[in-house]
Prior knowledge:
Shape: elongated
Structural class: alpha/beta
Distance between the termini: 62 Å
Order of helices and strands: EHEEHHHHEEHEEEHHHH
Oligomer: single chain
Number of domains: 2
Number of helices: 10
Helix content: 40-55%
Strand order of the largest sheet: 4-5-6-7-8
Amino acid sequence: xxxxxxxxxxxxxxxxxxxxxxxxxxxxxxxxxxxGYIEKELFTEYFFVPTSAEKAEKVAEAVRGKISETAYEKIxxxxxxxxxxxxxxxxxxxxxxxxxxKKVTDMLAVPAVFELFRLCRSVYNxxxxxQEFIRFSETKQGMLISRIGPKNEVLTLLAPYFADRMPDExxxxxxxxxxxxxxxxxxxxxxxxxxDSEMEKAVKNADTDGRCYEELWKIFHSTIAIKERTNFLCQxxxxxxxxxxxxxxxxxxxxxxx
Length: 258
């Protein structure tokens, strides 16, 4: 068995697909892994794959031309997953994709295809949840800022949604886990940024103007609740705990901190 270790990015994974395919060792003897902690096995060779934009582009063009745009979209979304096995799942999917063509996306009975779609579903589900749970605060300069901590890398899926919903506002969504942020400016579109320590600190300590309205919203949220009908199990089902630290209505009010 030969394991190709890839960078955790779409380009890195597609480079691994290229090298694994061109090795001619046989698909059953090749496996892709994401760079990080790997438990090494006996009788296995390990090769680190330097990311190559040229190789990645060749694979991307082949997927679009020989399979479909839909297949490429699924591969991209799967690459945003946090799961360690996503690189090999993409490789296994492409083995079938290049053999069967565009109809591969309908072959959910095939384990390799089902696994890729499972990864996509997980990423899409979290992206849709963050669309509902994201809360923005407005700075004194007029920028809307939101902080999130998603399991998967969903910023590039959230950006088009909020760009369409708030086209006239300047806004930023910061992913605290991955130290990334997406910034939108009206008329210029959105861009993904890698946050340095200064930018991260500025986002975390941003001085916002809406404290009074945030306080009123929290008071309203607690006032309308019916204590006798509180059902924490139901609440956690519809609103998992991991989202709450980033939601205004679950932050402490000034009176609670005193």
